[in-house]
């Protein structure tokens, strides 16, 4: 059984109920689905930024509500850690000059460490990472 790891963008599509993504998730064994702690960081950081920009009580309350919803949503998934070995893998990937951003390299390293398949729409960047298996669940199944 393969481990399918949703990247941050795919996690957002799942949360918004994208039909093809939702269908693939429903068809998968829940034990075979995960996200990385990097995606949790990216999700929550986005809502922290909204909190800092809130200028009135209603906006602040909505931002806190969405932050709580994001935390709850992320907590439904198995969250893969960013360990010392994955950090070392990020350093090695960075030294290869793959022209891939730090957060994406971290996600890739975690997926590689766990022998998983990355579920992403971002083939352009992630395809540069040697050995990384990629699937795009936002596309209809042929």
From TrEMBL:
InterPro entries xref list: PIN-like_dom_sf, PIN_dom
Record has Hydrolase as a keyword: yes
Keywords from the UniProt entry: Endonuclease, Hydrolase, Nuclease
Every PIN domain range: 4-131
Stretches that traverse the bilayer: none
Pfam families given in the database record: PIN
GO molecular function: endonuclease activity
Keyword Metal-binding: no
SUPFAM superfamilies according to UniProt: PIN domain-like
Protein's recorded name: tRNA(fMet)-specific endonuclease VapC
């Amino acid at each position: 059984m393969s481990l399918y790891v949703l990247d941050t963008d795919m996690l957002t599509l799942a949360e918004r109920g994208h039909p093809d993504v939702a269908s693939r998730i429903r068809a998968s064994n829940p034990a075979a689905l995960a996200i990385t702690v990097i995606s949790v960081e990216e999700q929550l950081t986005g809502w922290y930024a909204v909190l800092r920009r809130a200028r009135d009580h209603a906006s602040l309350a909505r931002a806190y509500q969405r932050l709580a919803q994001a935390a709850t949503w992320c907590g439904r998934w198995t969250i893969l850690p960013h360990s010392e070995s994955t950090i070392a893998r990020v350093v090695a990937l960075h030294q290869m000059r793959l022209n891939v951003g730090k957060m994406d390299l971290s996600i890739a390293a975690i997926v590689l460490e766990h022998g998983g398949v990355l579920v992403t729409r971002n083939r352009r960047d992630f395809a540069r990472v040697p050995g990384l298996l990629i699937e795009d669940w936002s596309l209809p199944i042929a």
